[in-house]
Every structure is written in C-alpha cells, then in structure tokens.
C-alpha cells in the first residue's frame, strides 16, 4: 500500500465517522454525549487525508526533486539517474534501493487494507442498535440504592426502565405507590415464556451495553412480537422473577395500556 492509498483510506474512514456522527446513526453505537468528539475525530481524519493526498500529488514536488537530483549528480560526478538505483556495500556487491521511483520508501503493510472493512460496514451495512438477541444473552442490570427521590408530578409519570426497575426491586415499590408510570422499550420473551419490556443501558458505547428488563402482566397488545417497541402505562406490583442468565431479579409491572411505536432514534438508556 503506497502513501496515496493510505491517504484515501484516511479520507474514507474520516468520512464514514463524520457521516455517522452528523446523523442519528451514531446513537446505535455510543451515548449522545460523545457526538462532539466523534465529529472532531472524523474532521481530523479527513483533514489529514486531504493534506497527505495533496502532498503526494502536488506537481511541483517532482520538479523540485529532479532539479535537486541533477544538481547533486553533476557536482559529485555521479551519472544522472544513478542515484536511488543501486549502492555498493564495499565488497563489490550492489544492492537495489527500496524506492518507488519518486523518492518514496516502501508502502505500509497489506493488512492496512482491512481498515476498509469498518468503513464499508458504516457506509453500506450500518449495523442496527442492540436488541432482543443481545438482551436475551445478557443478564439484567440494576443499580442498588438506599433512598429514592419522590416521583415528579404528572399522570402517568415518565420513568426510565432503570429507574422503575430499581425502585421496584430495592425500594419494594414504596416510592412508586399506586402511581401510574410510563415506560418505553422493546418486547422480548423471558423466563417461562413471560413477555418482558427491555432496553439496553450503556455507560459509554454499545460494547458495554447491558439490558434492563421488566416483566409484563395485565393488558398486553394482541399479536405482540419480539423487537416491537412499546410505550406502556401501568402500576407497580410486587411480583418478581429471576433472570435465567445471571439470577438477577426482574420486577413486574401491571400494564393498563400500551401502544406499539416506531423505534426511537435514541434506543439506549444512559
């Protein structure tokens, strides 16, 4: 791989990062707060690629190099064109210089072409956000707390999946009372065929994602399928079950109403 090809790869990688970070696509891989850093990284890669390509292709560079080589060859008595072709090792043996004819050394390793794979993945395939397949193979995530703030005003109260699950498990529903809450997540099958509402929670990116799971009881929509996104309302119930993956407690919610919705742009909780 020569330097021109390396510059083009820099441009492609930077362009793919910029394209993802300037649209909602980046939300499938990282939390929203990292968008400025993605934009900055992509811009730096694009500028580095453009500068490298300009430096390699500028027409004046070859003319200056040939003029300097001619002047040096004339003063030293070396035949023109001999420089950069061969060199003696002091024992009568000649070694060819590793040169591409333009004063450049050998190119980078061929494995560098593998950098194109994530580029094609972002530009052509665009892997979706993690869903029920990943959630079914990961244990439920909860955050233990000793005290919970009172619920805000509103009916129903909009809560994150993690907030509801933590209050239901560690607070035994005391802070929830009989208030109606609203949760949003995707449907998936749980232990014993129970329907769960789940949502992936990330600390940084999809690599550290873990699912928050809430079991569903009460009025469920007809024809419910895995991966369907739901916005539901319901109340706390003390029913619980155990996650078969890691043994974590999964609380229930008594569903009083639900709506099938499109997957939101920001599918992860953080």
From TrEMBL:
Residues of the DUF1980 domain: 178-268
Assigned keywords, A-Z: Membrane, Transmembrane, Transmembrane helix
Disordered as annotated region, ranges: 75-106
UniProt entry tagged with the keyword Transmembrane: yes
Transmembrane helix in keyword set: yes
Skewed-composition ranges (Low complexity): 77-87
Transmembrane intervals: 35-55, 111-130
Coiled coil regions, renumbered to chain: none
Pfam families in UniProt: DUF1980_C
Basic and acidic residues biased stretches: 88-103
The protein's name: TIGR03943 family protein
């Amino acid at each position: 791989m020569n330097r021109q090809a390396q510059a083009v790869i820099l441009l492609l990688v930077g362009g793919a990062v910029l394209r993802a970070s300037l649209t909602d696509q980046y939300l499938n891989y990282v939390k929203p707060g990292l968008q400025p850093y993605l934009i900055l990284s992509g811009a730096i890669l694009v500028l580095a690629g453009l500068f490298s390509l300009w430096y390699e292709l500028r027409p004046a560079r070859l003319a200056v190099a040939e003029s300097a080589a001619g002047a040096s060859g004339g003063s030293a008595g070396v035949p023109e064109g001999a420089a950069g072709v061969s060199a003696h090792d002091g024992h009568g043996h000649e070694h060819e210089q590793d040169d591409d004819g333009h004063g450049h050394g050998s190119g980078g390793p061929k494995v560098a072409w593998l950098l194109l794979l994530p580029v094609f993945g972002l530009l052509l395939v665009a892997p979706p956000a993690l869903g029920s397949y990943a959630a079914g193979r990961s244990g439920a995530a909860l955050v233990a707390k000793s005290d919970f703030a009172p619920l805000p005003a509103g009916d129903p109260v909009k809560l994150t999946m993690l907030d509801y699950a933590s209050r239901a498990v560690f607070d035994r529903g005391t802070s929830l009372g009989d208030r109606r809450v609203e949760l949003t997540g995707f449907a998936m099958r749980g232990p014993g065929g129970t329907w769960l509402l789940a949502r992936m929670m990330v600390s940084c990116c999809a690599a550290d994602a873990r699912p928050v799971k809430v079991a569903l009881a009460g009025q469920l929509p007809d024809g419910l399928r895995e991966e369907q996104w739901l916005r539901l309302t319901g109340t706390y119930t003390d029913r619980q079950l155990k996650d078969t993956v890691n043994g974590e407690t999964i609380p229930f919610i008594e569903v009083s109403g639900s709506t099938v919705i499109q997957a939101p742009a920001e599918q992860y909780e953080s």
